[in-house]
Amino acid sequence: MDLEDDTSVLTTLKSFNSFISHTEAPQRLSEGSAGSGNLQSQYKRSMELLEAGERVHSNNRYLQLDEEKKQMELSHKRARYELEKVASDSARDLEHEVDRNQDLLGRLKKFQERETEAAKNLSEQVEANRALRKNMEGLNRKLEERDTRLNTANQTISSLKDDIRELTQRIQNQDSTTSSQTLENQELQEQKHQEVSQLCQSLQAAQSSCSEHIVKIKELERRLALQEQDIAIVKTVKSEVAKVPNLEKDLKRLREDNAFLRKPEDLSREVIHIQQREIALKEQNYTLSSRVRSAERSQNEHRAELCQQRSKTLEEQKKRETQDSLVRRLQKRVLLLTKERDGMRAILESYDSELAPTEYSPQLNKRLREAEDILQKTQSHNVEMEAQLTKSQEETGTLKLQLQTVELELESLKKHQASAADSNTSGTKEELNILRQKIEDLESERQRLEEQNNILEMRLERHILQEDQLLLTRGLEPLGCTPTALQNNMFSSQDLRKRLFIKISVLQIAGHQKEKSLRYNLHLDSSMVPFIALGTEGDYDPIKTRVLHFKMNPTTVAKQQRQQDIDALREEVTRLSELVRSLQEGGAMVQGDSSINASLSLPPSKEVVDLRKQMESLELRNQRLKEVFQRKIQEFRTVCYVLTGYQIDITTENQYRLTSVYAEQMDDSLLFKKEEIESQGQLIKTYSQLTVNLLTTERWRERKECMEEG
Amino acid sequence: MTSTLNGITLKGSAELVADFFSFGINSILYQRGIYPPETFSRVTHYDMSLQLTTDPKLKNYLTNVVSQLKEWLFECTVQKFVLVITCLETNEVLERWQFDIDCDKSAKESSAPREKSIKIIQDEIRSVIRQITATVTFLPLLETPCAFDLLVYTDKDLLVPDKWEASGPQIIDQSEEVRLRSFTTSIHKVNSMVAYKRTDSV
């Protein structure tokens, strides 16, 4: 529109200008015409001008109005457009609002539904709440009941704790009493030990005296033997003496027989001799008889002494045995008491350790009762065993007494036997047989009793071991000794043929040996073989256990590997030290020594490496050149041979062979020798040339002929 | 197999104890770093995850020892089972894991199985192995290269098999001892303890 306005303005301007020019032109034209009509013309002109001006004004106004109209229209359009926009916007907004309304309505409905649901849930939850509250009340009631029960239980626990405290106090009291008892026992034991030691000393003194007596007895026995020998000698002498009257008779007879044969002097001499012999024999006889009487007297005296000594030794043996048995019994009682004390202590300790976490009172009571029952049983059993032992010992004592009486009887019988030597043997023999049988019976009884004794002792030891095992199962350390029941039954069966007094002496020796064995048992009981206590880490009883491990175990393998590594490292170290030494000494001479070079493990320097690389490359190049040259020369030679028809080979140094293609046979060739002299060479050269030419021309001709023919 | 029956027989008990030793030794070797951890693989046993070695030589050695131990457990001739850890440089014993075995010999005579739930036994074993794992917290570090050995304390009159030989007890000089839990199959009772060399406080 502006353009239109412009153009309208421009058109008006142009029209105005054109008008003006048009008016000017006529003005110019009209200048020459009338001077009179100037005023009219001027007036006309002015009126025309005014009209033109008015026309222009009206045009202008028209144009302005046009413009305004256009602008109005434009503004109208704009306003309409805007209105329409606004209307559309408002319509859209309305639609939006409608949609929103609908959405909101829908949401409202949903919320209302949710509300109703929530209200339902609420009601349900309220009901559930009520039910839960009821449950809670019930549970609270139960809790209260449980609390009351807990309280009662706690009360019972406290009461039980009090009971336990009382029990522990009682146990402590018992402990104290047991400790006091042990102290008393120890004192008693010490006293007994002292008494026993005194007894032992006295026994040892008695033993020494016994040994002395035994020695004396042996001497007496030796003397007895000697005397018996003497008696035998005496008997032989007596027999000889008895034979003497016979001999005298024989002598007389012989004398009477020989009266006439011999001379009186010889006879007298013989008679004198015989008389002398008679006298000597008689003297011997007297001496022997006196000796026999003295020997018999000494024998009797010795026998009396023997009896006394034997009785003394028997008494002392009896005393010792009783004391030994007493000592043993006391020691066993001490052992039992100490074991009881240890068992109680261990039980207490186990109770103390188990006191805190779990229920302990019924267990405690049970264990106490069980332990007491076991103790009572073992004690009763021990008492029984001890009673049996005492019975058996008493029986052995009585048997020994019987033995002694029998021995005394035997001795008396022997005396009788000795006095009434040769006669009345049959009666005494019967008595001797009876006595022998008695002795054998007594011996067998004694053996049986000894076996019983040993069996009882074994049972006692087994019982002690069982007690130890029971204590072990309760986790306690036993203090049981493991005495081996040595049964040195060194009684041998006796020989019936030996004389009675030897039998008795053997019996006595056996009795002594038995005492020794019993004493050894006593010592063993008292020594209490040390038992390496289990429980400390790693310790073990080498008598019963053995430690084993696998031969190829990881530790040995690792150690071997380590050793091997160490050896290898040492070898390397020595080798390297040798190398270093050699390098220090040799320096440049290292390369000549191949042995060291072989083991040279020094890192090569850069120059060496570069040189080596160069060398390799040169060698490669050389190789390649060789190959290439060979190929090329072969090619060249073949080409020469083909083109020229001649092949030149080098047979040996400075000798060359020329072969032609056209040769009739393969072996046809020309040999040339190269010499240093030039002239000669030239000769050769010219000669060869000539021949070559000759040959070639000839062959060429032949070929040509062949070709022409063919 | 004892898992199908309700009771424990001597053979089943021996197997249980041998299994425990097998896994226990592996655990100890892993925890104490005797062998590098990458040579162990994780397995599930006793309702817990345990480490088992994959080194073939070590596996072979352990199977040999455990199989022989199973026989001895069946015969009730074994008293203790000890794992000894030795320092290779100084040949000193640094640690000693000792398992005391009490065998009820009456089970040898009577073949009637004993009433004990396997689950309870496994629970007990699990607690012992957990304790072994927990001991790592207070045991001193093994800084030097170490090797281990397995010792068995048996009765003196036992016939020594071919691949075994007698050994010393390899006791630690100046040791600290810690007693661990025990478990019992009602035929075999195993008490565990560990002894280690007392380290001088700095």
UniProtKB/TrEMBL annotation, chain A:
Domain of life (superkingdom): Eukaryota
Keyword set includes Lyase: no
InterPro entries: Mad1
Localization per record: Nucleus
KW Phosphoprotein (keyword) present: no
Cellular component terms per the entry's GO annotation: kinetochore; mitotic spindle; nuclear envelope
Coiled-coil regions listed in the entry: 109-177, 203-257, 368-395, 425-466, 559-635
SUPFAM superfamilies: Mitotic arrest deficient-like 1, Mad1
Keywords on record: Cell cycle, Cell division, Coiled coil, Mitosis, Nucleus
UniProt-listed GO biological process terms: attachment of mitotic spindle microtubules to kinetochore; cell division; mitotic spindle assembly checkpoint signaling
Composition bias type Basic and acidic residues, residue spans: 293-305, 312-323
Region of interest: Disordered: 292-323
UniProt family annotation: Belongs to the MAD1 family.
Designated name of the protein: Mitotic spindle assembly checkpoint protein MAD1
Source organism per UniProt: Dissostichus eleginoides (Patagonian toothfish)
Lineage: Eukaryota, Metazoa, Chordata, Craniata, Vertebrata
TrEMBL record, chain B:
Stretches assigned to the HORMA domain: 11-194
Keyword Nucleotide-binding included in the entry's annotation: no
Gene Ontology biological process terms, A to Z: cell division; mitotic spindle assembly checkpoint signaling
Subcellular location(s) of the protein: Nucleus
Matching InterPro entries: HORMA_dom, HORMA_dom_sf, Mad2-like
GO CC terms of this entry: kinetochore; mitotic spindle assembly checkpoint MAD1-MAD2 complex; nucleoplasm
Assigned keywords, A-Z: Cell cycle, Cell division, Mitosis, Nucleus
Similarity section: Belongs to the MAD2 family.
Protein name in the entry: Mitotic spindle assembly checkpoint protein MAD2A
